[in-house]
Amino acid sequence: QLQLQESGPGLVKASETLSLICTVSSGSISSSSYYWGWIRQPPGKGLEWIGSIYYSGSTYYNPSLTSRVTISADTSKNELSLKLSSVTAADTAVYYCARGFLEWLSNHMDVWGKGTTVTVSS
Amino acid sequence: QSALTQPASVSGSPGQSITISCTGTSSDVGGHNYVSWYQQHPGKAPKLMIYDVSKRPSGVSSRFSGSKSGNTASLTISGLQAEDEADYYCSSYTNSVTWVFGGGTKVTVL
């Protein structure tokens, strides 16, 4: 059964770069039917889509974050990476990675990791 | 992109049916049949309950159903049970190849 596990520093200083890894097990990130996304949830607030990376390597980002975010994939390690630069307290959140399924007439994010909490300190 | 609009809270008694609305625009909800609904219990990751407007993943109770009319999607929970108490989020694919979420709805079972 596919599993996703987010990992990275739980504490990041303001103005620095947040870096997270999503390790995918029991499945390959190289399948053309799937894409991979990052979503975050600030404490007590709702979900916010950060961005996605597709099989082709194309990436798409939330317009509000596009100048600061980079998502990449390492197929040799079966890992995804999220980098968010110039962080502020507003970037404090639980960060999730998720698998997206994309085929003719179907598109959804079906498998999510348990999430990792990142706190930005001043 | 603006968040989809959901009611902050909905409540119902056990056995009743409730409906949560999710309003967007013609660039997201109204323009695609890629609307999903997620259930989230406190401290847990979101769980996919409905995808592609009205499809249920394997293992999700048939008490959950989805629909869409114009720019508004809806999630209906019938035969409300105590375990259904949670936060529910809608999400929609957009014309810009992005995803947008709703603000979330807290469902309370009275």
Detailed description of the structure:
- The complex is a heterodimer of chains A (122) and B (110).
- Chain A is built from no helices and eleven strands.
- Chain A has strands at 3-7, 11-13, 18-25, 34-41, 48-53, 59-61, 69-74, 79-84, 93-103, 106-112, 116-121.
- Chain B has strands at residues 9-12, 18-23, 35-40, 47-50, 64-69, 72-77, 86-93, 99-101, 105-109.
- In chain B, the strands form two sheets. In chain B, strands 1, 3, 4, 7, 8 and 9 form a six-stranded mixed sheet that branches.
- In chain B, strand 3 and strand 4 form a beta hairpin.
- The N and C termini of chain B lie far apart (35 Å).
- The mean pLDDT of chain B is 97.
- The A-B interface holds A 37, 39, 46-49, 52, 60-64, 96, 105-110, 112-115 and B 1, 3, 32-34, 36, 38, 44-48, 51-52, 55, 57, 89, 91, 93, 96-104.
- How many strands in all of chain B? 9
Q: Please state the structural category of chain B.
A: mainly beta
Strand content of chain A: over 45%
- What is the largest interface, and how many residues per chain? A-B, 23 and 28 residues
Q: What is the distance, rounded to the nearest whole angstrom, between the alpha carbons of the first and last residues of chain B? A: 35 Å
